[in-house]
Design a protein that fits this description.
It is a single chain. The chain is α+β, with helices and mostly antiparallel strands. It contains 3 helices and 3 strands; from the N terminus they run ββαβαα.
Length: 96
């Protein structure tokens, strides 16, 4: 069973990160039809801007949680497949 992690760009310019066992394009359609309650239901239309597919759901869940914590700039680098920029966009360590 394959699981996809995806990023949607919402009508207000924000990003939504999710995962699905379904076809990602079908999931995008569900969001646009407001069949999924929550964040995107008030921010349609949405556009799928990034998809990664995993064979194990635990890997997909870990990746989804990782991306959700990222800054907007880091998500945009991922969307652009600019993997070299990702380390430089890491959060700064918190002060003690």
């Amino acid at each position: 069973m394959q699981v996809s992690v995806y990023i949607l760009r919402c009508a207000d310019g924000s990003y939504y990160v999710g995962l699905t066992r379904k076809n990602p394009e079908g999931r995008e359609w569900e969001h646009n039809q407001k069949l999924i309650a929550g964040y995107t239901s008030t921010r349609t239309p949405v556009v799928m801007v990034f998809v990664e597919t995993y064979d194990r759901i635990v890997d997909a869940i870990a990746r989804e949680q990782q991306i959700k914590k990222w800054s907007r700039r880091k998500k945009e680098a991922l969307i652009a497949y600019d993997y070299e920029a990702l380390p430089d966009l890491a959060s700064r360590p918190k002060r003690k």
